[in-house]
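Data deposition worksheet. Section B asks for the primary sequence of the deposited chain exactly as it was used as input, without tags or linkers unless they were present during the calculation. Section C holds the resulting structure in token form. Section D is free text for depositor observations; keep each observation to a single sentence. Incomplete worksheets are returned to the depositor.
Section A, Depositor: J.P.
Section B:
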Amino acid sequence: MDLHDLTRSLHVRNESKIVMLVADGLGGLPLEPGGKTELETAKTPNLDRLAQTGVLGSSIPVVPGISPGSGPGHLALFGYDPLKFQIGRGALEATGIGIELGPRDVAARGNFCTLASDGTISDRRAGRIPTEESGPLAIRLRDARIDGVELTVEPVKEHRFVVVFRGEGLGGDVDDTDPQATGVPPLAPRARDSQSQRTAQVAAEFVRQAEELLQGEAKANGLTLRGFSPRPDLASYEEVYGLRAAAIAVYPMYKGLARLVGMEIVGQPQTLDEQIGLMRESWNSHDFFFLHFKYTDSTGEDGNFDEKVRRIEELDAAIPTILDLQPTVLIVTGDHSTPSALKSHSWHPVPTLLHAAHCRPDPCREFSETECLRGGLGQFEAKYLMSLALANAGRLGKFGA
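Section C:
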């Protein structure tokens, strides 16, 4: 019996409400020895009050020492073992903008980038080009033509777009072309198995034609491809947990992941206030609410310590409005750590707060990495967070006689 079989067998339905507020890339590091992290620097009176009556811990998204992508990080938070259920970023992005992937499809997430005259990458995100500039460029890429393959190219947001390759004999096991560094050229797409050789060839030809189509652009004159993937097959939240789940997110990728696990995508919010407003409107029709806050991650990736602090304070200011809805269980956590000092996702455990009427409070007095390390939840695998949420909501029966 695996974890999902167990939760299926113990479902208890009631009127409880669970809110999972995910501050993407929440965890951080000090900029100097003995200093404070972004979370420890931020003024978070509301989260600190919750910490005093809730329980804290540090979640491990995959296994110790592994730096997760956003897909595995969120899958773990949703209770799906990221080592068992592997979903490429392409499928997440495509599903997030409403593309229905078929059995002959392989999707990839595209990033516009800036290429120097010598073909090396000078900016991996094309200066975070605004959507109104990148959208027409993505549409221009539809002019690419590859024999035997149908191409779908759709703008997403800022420097991001989605490309779907549809045809016979396409596998999804292809390496990313993003080298995750500047000063070097994009990588060539490389198949990791024989079934994906044709996909790698198709992707290489698409990149070649795309660079011709983008020639002369000041910001977005190149691209990288990430997360080649077909559509995965995942059991739904309703089936696994007995929950009517709502996802309220701004960025398509997170909507895509939520849709793949059977959550209903609610609205088209652009701000945290709008997200909370939509949650209020959906309160009576759902049992579980996933709220995604992106900007603690993007500021960390930009290496902007002060701005990440400000974004954490923005998140804290929204807590009273969420508490006004009186959720049975409120979880505040991240899908991974993104320290400004590293400008990237990292392997560090993620601060986690669980607040519920029947949780066992610990001695912690504030929500911070240091306090979470000594919190009552200890260090735990993130895939168990959903069973903790269900238990505190009274939604799991007793196991065994």
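Section D:
The chain has a mean pLDDT of 95.
Residues 98-229 form one domain.
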